Amino acid sequence: MRLSRYFLPVLKEDPADAQIVSHRYMLRAGMIKQAQAGIYSWLPLGFKVLKRIEEIVHEEQVRAGHIPMLMPTLQSADLWRESGRYEDYGEEMLRITDRHGRGMLYGPTNEELITDIFRTHVSSYKDLPLTLYHIQWKFRDERRPRFGVMRGREFYMKDGYNFDIDKAAALHAYNRHLVSYLRTYERMGLQAIPMRADSGPIGGDDTHEFLVLAETGESEVFYDSAVTDLTFGDREIDYDSVAQCQSILEEFTSKYARTDETHDEALFDKIPEERRRTARGIEVGQIFYFGTKYSDAMGATVQGPDGKPVPVHMGSHGIGVSRLAGAIIEASHDDKGIIWPEGVTPFHCGIVNLKQGDAEADAACENLYLQLTNAGLEPLYDDRDERAGGKFATMDLIGLPRRITVGPRGLKNGVVELTSRKSGESEELTPDAAIAKVAAIYGKE
Ligand code: ATP
Ligand code: MG
Questions:
Q1: Residues 360 and 437 in one domain
Q2: Is the pTM of this model over 0.85?
Q3: Which ligand 1 atom is at minimum distance from the Cα of 202?
Q4: Which residue CA neighbors atom 1 of ligand 1 most closely?
Q5: Which residue lies with its CA nearest to atom 26 of ligand 1?
Q6: Domain ends where: 338, 357, 378?
Q7: Which ligand is closest in space to the CA of residue 283?
């Protein structure tokens, strides 16, 4: 993309109403614009990040054997009356009436709708296990929408639902989700710690929340600092292996890590004092096993091996896709702007032309642009006729992991400058070597 033809409405000044850094930078970098309280338009740069996050979520869900689909945002009130949640859900649910007077609602989550699909089409234990998921907009009329996309009213969520013949099989699905989530967050450059949590209006006893530690997080958390040493890395995992998934769950959940709702002082005090931590965290996902709560209420049974009907065991599993855009910035920024992890960056690399209009500099930039594109990368070329200082400030603000700077002086010696956004370090390289280096970072050699 050439910046002169892009739509990147960056703001010079800090917006007054943004209290936390991710909100400030998302507005300043022209990623989002508030439409109403807690409702945002995703401008081109923000939309790209949202799509990158979504892509990773999809890839890791499919890798775990889960099946993508899409359910609507508007749901029928009658369906929610079957589970009893139409009344229970409270003021967070946006209730709507159509022209025929029929009750509808903008879905805050999808247990009822998916259970209805399941009971319509699945009747035998032979069709299990089954995990279906979608990534769709949700609406919750939050009392205090704030912090930009972190606590929106309309937000983008991945929600998945497993259907299993019994508790043991459903707990394997739970473990499988935990493992796939660990991989998902790490690919986004995040450490998200699974913590024992409370199930809230979804129901059920077994639940973990995934928290990214950050001072601006809304949850108070308590943990053994040893949990922060755990990383999933690129280990190969067989998602059908009950033992493997179980052992990873144990590895990542056996150390103390809880949100305030489930915090237990007595247990916490057993951790050696120097490892006890109280901090704040951002909830970026949650997994639940709730047994037959919805299948009992809505009559979702399958015929078991002995021919008798059994209610299916279910769980639901959510990832806050739009919240993640903010959470990643909270975890990765400096005083100049965002520092995107490679996995979610909107463009792979920036190209800054120090002297737009200089025939040699223009040609070198065009060539870099073409070659990076041919290597399967998306560069953002700042080809505007602007001061170098302004171009650098924009690149720093929007946080692309690498920048290639091209100027007549370097070109005289046959070099350009490759700079890392994170470390700030620069090196002089031939244009070909710079391209090869950027390509290698993204596995595009
Ligand atoms: P919270 O406690 O933050 O209100 P929740 O526990 O009610 O969230 P879940 O039902 O677990 O939310 O939804 C799954 C994920 O969706 C959450 O882990 C979170 O990342 C995201 N999410 C929930 N509410 C919002 C919101 N208002 N804005 C943005 N993302 C949200
Ligand atoms: Mg939650």
A1: yes
A2: yes
A3: 10
A4: 283
A5: 151
A6: 338
A7: 1
